[in-house]
Amino acid sequence: MTSEMTRQQEALGAIEFSPEGAVQIRTLGEAFCVARLLIGAGFAPKGATAEGATVSIMEGRRLGLDPLAAVQGISAVNGRPTLWGDAMVAVVKASGLVEDERVEWFPSRKEPQGVRYTVKRRGMPTPYVGEFSRAMAERAGLWGKSGPWTTNPDRMLLNRARAFALRDGFADVLKGLTSTEEARDAAASAVVTAEARPVPEAIEAPAPRRKRAPAAELLAPTPQVSLPLDPGRAKAAPRPQPENGTEAAEAAEAVPDGVGTDAQPSGADFLD
After folding, report:
1. Which of these, 24, 83, 96, 27, lies nearest to 56 by C-alpha position?
2. Within 13 Å, how many C-alpha atoms sit on residue 191's CB side?
3. Which helix (H) or strand (E) holds 51?
4. Contacts by 81-87 with C-beta closer than 8 Å and gap 24+?
5. What is the pLDDT of residues 198-213, one digit of tens each?
6. Whether this model's pTM surpasses 0.70
7. Residue 206 C-alpha from the chain's centroid
8. CA 127 from centroid of its chain's CA atoms
């Protein structure tokens, strides 16, 4: 524990300040030490971790924010870095590209029902305009929501309109980051609470019912099946004796082979 504190003090001791008073961070280790320092001093948002604050410092370095402004102005929403409203304006104005801006409340500033924010980028002929109204907030389920939308709805309208215009006109300066307020409202509106319903149990299909025969068929007598008589047991009818040899030959041809008074038929004869 002592060695870890010693290493942290040595890392903090190597950090220098710029002539303007900003902390100059050169390595990832220095960023991690500064992040832990800000969290321990209570200058980080509630629930911030050393890892998250370190990433905020890294992202702020790309945008030109000092470590303290980065930790306080950059927040992760759904795994994406976002900028708080005032931090977004600070980054854009620090770029030196804002030529003019104008805020219009309608119908009035005292009873705002909507706001229009216009910003002119240097070197661009057409200004960028962002609008957000109470009707739009109601459709999104934001108006009257507990929190800033109830305590400061005019400010929330301005933040949303301003974010639209700044993102459209200065996407290169913002590096694609959106506003924290917009990202949080979008994440909250995307959550749908499903009503808990009992899962129906599997219903076993009933066994097919056997068709019962009518009572008349059950009481009907069993039909008698007649079987062919055994030719060996049946009495052979006397045959007329042929008078000459020709008639005997014709009679022999008329009788099928294997059939006679002394022949015993096979099972195939019965099946036929």
Report:
1. 83
2. 7
3. helix 50-63
4. 81/55, 81/56, 81/177, 82/177, 82/178, 82/179, 82/180, 82/182, 82/183, 83/174, 83/177, 83/178, 83/179, 83/180, 84/179, 84/180, 84/181, 85/159, 85/162, 85/163, 85/179, 85/180, 85/181
5. 545 555 556 666 666 5
6. no
7. 38
8. 38
Nearest to 71, CA basis, from 47, 54, 88, 90: 54
| Token output for 256 | 């099928």
- Do residues 118 and 105 make contact, with C-beta atoms less than 8 angstroms apart? no
Determine the angle formed by the axes of helices 28-40 and 2-13, rounding to 10 degrees.
110
The residue type found at 66 is D
Residue type at position 242 = P
pLDDT tens digit sequence for 66-114: 999 999 999 999 889 999 989 999 999 999 999 999 999 999 888 889 9
